[in-house]
Amino acid sequence: MPILLLTAQLLVSLTLLISGAAKLGDRRGTRDAMVSLRLPLPRAHATAALLLPGAEIVLALGIWLPVPLVPLAFSVLIVVLLVLYWAIIARALGFEEAVSCSCFGTLGSPTLSRTTLVRNTLLLALGALSVIGTARSLPAHAIMGAPGALGQLVLAVLLTGLLALLTLGGTSRRSETGQGAAVVGDRPSAHEPSDAADPRAASADDADLDYERTPTPFGMLQRSGEEPVSLAALTAERAALLIWVRPGCGPCERVLNAIGAWRAALEETVSVHTLVRADPAGLAPSVRERAGDSLARDIEGNLAVSLRATSSPAAVLLGADGLLAGGPVAGAEGVTAFVEEIIEQIGQARDRGELISPSA
Fold first, then answer.
1. In the structure, what pLDDT confidence band is assigned to residue 357 with cuts at 50, 70 and 90?
2. Which of 77, 105, 283, 352 has a CA positioned 20 to 30 A from the CA of residue 149?
3. With b meaning 16 or more CB within 10 Å and e meaning fewer, what string describes 177-205?
4. Helix (H) or strand (E) holding 107
5. Are 64 and 73 contacting, i.e. CB atoms less than 8 angstroms apart?
6. Which residues contact 159 (CB under 8 A, 6 or more apart)?
7. Distances (CA, A) of 89 to 55, 110, 122
8. Between β-strands 220-222 and 182-183, what pairing exists: parallel, antiparallel or unpaired?
9. Reported confidence tier of residue 165, pLDDT bands at 50, 70, 90
10. Is 305 helix (H, G, I), strand (E, B) or coil?
């Protein structure tokens, strides 16, 4: 029994240490996760993301303090925290769409699933065993009073490492997280907009470019209350920037907040389209307000599949010459850098007098 209790304490402590350390380097991801999980008091998210990593680390270390009753108090607080985490995840599994959560910062699988709930159930059980262990004055009692305690401790450490890998593992981290940039293709950069935006502009030598341009595949999108339109029709006169978002996803919310400014900077040369899976008319007013009339439905996800932009958020630039002009890129940072590069290139081309307005 002592070895089981000691292993539980070690595993819970190590898990919280890893979780806290990972969150320290990914506070933006922690805030995004709070948005994705629809936690209340959004104004407090920044403060919570700042304090939570330190709190997890303090709790992880507190159960080892050689002070009467202090380890027990910290163990009880850990169980309370694990119960809260369990309830948040169980609630999120009932959402209409999958949720990404930086439960372990930059580590582990970010997409919540029933496996995530099983993992947290295991942690909760270990937390309860940890309370029993600290109530029995472990590990001091186990080390000093039990024969062969040092060997048992070594075994417990090895078991803890194995269980920690199982706890943090599961599925691999995928680009659907929206955490950071993920590029599919040779280069995360837009083709020179002066070539992509206007079929009448001087054509560049594609062979000299790192980005391999390929024909725009067939695909359809649909604005609310309108007939579906093909990508070929969409880019008949000017380039088109497609941006996929999933309302409620933390990184997607950041991208949505920037859509208005991007449209203002690009609309004369590049049309901007904010793509979602659902009917735009059924989305929250805040989403429709930020996306404006750029909001459109990616019918059954056909564009995301054909353009290999299955992440959220993601972006692709389509040229007016029937070829892909940049992307796909994924993640809030990746999409933001991608769009800012397009804006910069268009500004440079305009300064050089190389841009021909589609309406000219």
1. low
2. 77
3. bbbbbbbbbeebbbbbbbbbbbbebeeee
4. none
5. no
6. 7, 11
7. 19, 12, 14
8. unpaired
9. low
10. helix
Query: What is the Cα–Cα distance from 292 to 272, expressed in whole angstroms?
Result: 10
3-state secondary structure of 17: helix
* Sheet with 229-230, edge to edge strand ranges: 182-183, 324-330, 314-318, 239-244, 270-276, 295-298, 220-222, 229-230
Query: What's the pLDDT score for residue 207?
Result: 38
List the chain domain ranges.
2-173, 182-351
b/e sequence 275-284, b meaning 16+ C-beta within 10 Å: bbbeebeebe
**Which tokens go with 323?**
């070829």
Arithmetic mean of pLDDT, 107-136: 81
The per-residue pLDDT for 98 is: 65
Q: What is the CATH number of domain 182-351?
A: 3.40.30.10
Alpha-carbon 352 to chain mean position? 38
* Averaged pLDDT for residues 204-232: 76
Largest distance between two CA atoms of the chain: 89
The residue assigned the tokens 């949505």 is: 256
User: Residue 355 half-sphere exposure, CB side, CA atoms within 13 Å?
Assistant: 23
Find out whether 173 and 110 touch, Cβ atoms under 8 Å.
Answer: yes
Residue 262 has pLDDT above 90, yes or no: yes
Cβ–Cβ contacts within 10 Å for residue 329, how many?
A: 30
Q: What is the mean pLDDT of the chain?
A: 77
Confidence of residue 193 (pLDDT cuts 50, 70, 90): very low
42, pLDDT greater than 50:
yes
Min mean pLDDT across 71-85, 149-163, 211-225, 292-306 is at 149-163
